[in-house]
Amino acid sequence: MSAATPLSIAILISGRGSNMEALAEACASGALAARVAVVIADRGGAPGLDAARARGLETRALVHRGERSAFEHELGAALERHRPGAVALAGFMRVLSAEFVARYLGRMFNIHPSLLPKYRGLDTHRRVLAAGDAVHGASVHFVTPELDAGPVVLQSQVAVAPGDTEATLAARVLATEHVIYPRALGWFADRRLAWRDGAAWLDGRRLMAPLLEDFRAVVAP
Ligand code: GRF
């Protein structure tokens, strides 16, 4: 993006919004050359809305009345008021339709708490512990219609410790999410990261595998 038109990002949340805050913080510090256009929640009670307001960000709470098409109509209208250059799902717990995803294909991102393609869906930390994995992490990926299956751009890797519980493991992974999500969106804002032919491209090269940031020595168990 040129200095005159920084990337504008709409952030979609459902809960506490710590990834939203990490993105907002990176924008405010200049580490991410973008601005947060709006924070939209799918429920009024999302704690992240208060955090966003406290930062002076524009917020919008939508009400889901049970019909996805009506909800997506409202969501689409709320987004288009801001014409965002990117949409960042940050703990957004709704599965969006293929039609909706298609509208933002190539500029909609998600942060998922696992080393995709392992552990798509929910309860990733519990499943990692049950499987006895030695490493775990998070993934930033382009959103495609298939859940948690879009091209992965950047991953973080942390160690799973013998005494880990879901909570301790989740906290260790979350700390890395707050690093890799702003970083990957920064590449997009700087036009280093692009979507082409259904794949992620960085610096003009197709990513054959996600980039991996190893936090095992940094985020100690
Ligand atoms: C994060 O672990 C994220 O990876 C997952 O949902 C959680 C949201 O946390 N998609 P927060 O609302 O950003 O704090």
How would you characterize this protein structure?
The protein has 221 residues and is an alpha/beta fold. Helices cover 32% and strands 26% of the residues. The chain has 2 domains: 1-104, Formyl transferase, N-terminal domain (Rossmann fold, 3-Layer(aba) Sandwich); 112-221, 3-Layer(aba) Sandwich (Rossmann fold), CATH 3.40.50. The chain has helices at 18-29, 47-54, 68-80, 98-103, 124-131, 166-189, and strands at residues 7-13, 34-41, 59-61, 86-89, 108-112, 135-142, 152-159, 193-196, 199-202, 205-206, 211-214. The chain has an 8-stranded mixed β-sheet, sandwiched between helices. A hairpin with a 2-residue loop joins β8 and β9. The chain is globular, with a radius of gyration of 17 Å. The termini are far apart. The mean pLDDT is 96.
- Cα-atom Rg, whole angstroms? 17 Å
Beta-strand percentage range: 25-35%
Low-confidence stretches: none
Helix content: 25-40%
Ligands and ions found: 5-O-phosphono-beta-D-ribofuranosylamine
Shape: globular
Count of helical stretches: 6
Spell out the helices and strands N to C.
EHEHEHEHEHEEHEEEE
The CATH topology name of the largest domain reads Rossmann fold
Strand order of the largest sheet: 3-2-1-4-5-6-7-11
How many domain units? 2
